[in-house]
Write a structure and sequence with these properties.
Structural class: alpha+beta
Helix content: 40-55%
Radius of gyration: 19 Å
Low-confidence stretches: none
CATH topology of the domain at 32-94: Alpha-Beta Plaits
Order of helices and strands: HEHEEHEH
Bound molecules: iron/sulfur cluster
């Protein structure tokens, strides 16, 4: 449809949804969950990195030619656990102190983003 004839409420609604998804993608984190690699299962095929299993860039190949997960980047989405052909990824529940720390970090990140937005 020609955008000039579109209902302005729909246009605003769509823009709001896009913005919300973007923010969710950037900041959403499942508190208390992180991925771990079961090294004994990882065969070092590199598919997780090559095929981008992680949308947040948390997976890399280590010097030992096994996959590794960066704790700070992992959002706990569990995507990688469904994709590895060797079922090498597993999820770990973080102890409460680590959760608190993660939430504190997230809080600071959101405050910074809001400030940048002028709010
Ligand atoms: S974690 Fe899975 S996909 Fe990644 S290198 Fe190991 S076996 Fe391959
Ligand atoms: S759980 Fe999600 S965010 Fe964490 S490494 Fe796996 S795919 Fe990436």
């Amino acid at each position: 449809m020609d955008p000039r004839y579109e209902n302005p409420v729909s246009v605003i609604g769509r823009a709001a949804i896009r913005k919300t998804w973007k923010a969710a993608d950037k900041y959403a984190r499942v508190p208390g969950l992180r991925a771990l690699v079961r090294k004994e299962r990882c065969v070092g095929c590199g598919a997780c990195v090559r095929k981008g299993f992680c949308r947040f860039g948390a997976i890399s190949m280590g010097d030992d030619r096994k996959a590794a997960v960066d704790d700070r980047a992992c959002r706990g989405c569990t995507r990688c656990t469904h994709l590895c052909p060797e079922n090498a990824f597993t999820m770990e529940i973080r102890p409460p102190a680590m959760v608190k720390e993660a939430l504190k970090g997230l809080d600071a990140e959101i405050s910074r983003a809001l400030k940048q937005d002028g709010r």
